[in-house]
Amino acid sequence: MSPLRLVLVTRRFWPLLGGAERIMADLAGEFQSAGAKVTLLTAQWDRQWPREIVHRGVRVVRLPQPALRWWGTWRYMRALAGWLRAERANYDLVLVSMLKHDAYAALEVGRTLSAPVVLRAEGAGLTGDVHWQLANRFGWRIRRRAYGADGVVAPSLVIQRELVASGYQRNRVHYIPNGVRAARPRPPAPRPAARRALAEAHPQLTASGAAPVAVYTGRLHEAKGIQYLIAAWTSVS
What we know:
Layout: E1 5-9, H1 19-33, E2 37-44, E3 52-55, E4 58-64, H2 69-86, E5 93-97, H3 101-113, E6 117-120, H4 129-135, H5 139-146, E7 151-154, H6 157-165, E8 173-175, H7 191-201, H8 226-236
Parallel strand pairs: 1-2, 1-5, 2-4, 5-6, 6-7, 7-8
Antiparallel strand pairs: 3-4
Helix pairs in contact: 2-3, 3-5, 4-5
């Protein structure tokens, strides 16, 4: 059986870092490890960056995006659609991060060339994709086209509810929470240095060598579920 050929699309990617970028890097690497053939498409935010790299064993293609705001977005969308058309015989499915301009361009190709396209929503509330579609002047057109995606992944129940309330068909919205990479065993030697670094960042982060320590990096938003982490922490400490 031939390996599944996947194209992952994320406008922002390494060395630009964030939650969505990290998730897409993890997905690309895990798909590749599972035997799929993965190509990741992203934008060339800096003209000095190479057009192609290999990240965690995955081929990454950077598409042109001039610095001018509106022209850069349009140029990137054209380049993305052009690549997907030219390479249609070489992939089986497209997975797009965020319900924005990338999704609009990919779905146009999917509609004309019968290419399955799955979207992955990112964020909830005022910083999420659903609100962006409602607030952005081009958002309503993207939302109307996104309704036709073969599937939409909601990484949280909050995002799932927002998508359905915004008009996405319930049977096409799939709740798939973000996976957590299993940590590799670490020797105890670096722990004192890590705790000293935390204490230097802020005195309230000082912890003894025996005390368990958890570090959260992300938005302080109800949808992140920090309240559950805090409630459960008493059983750990």
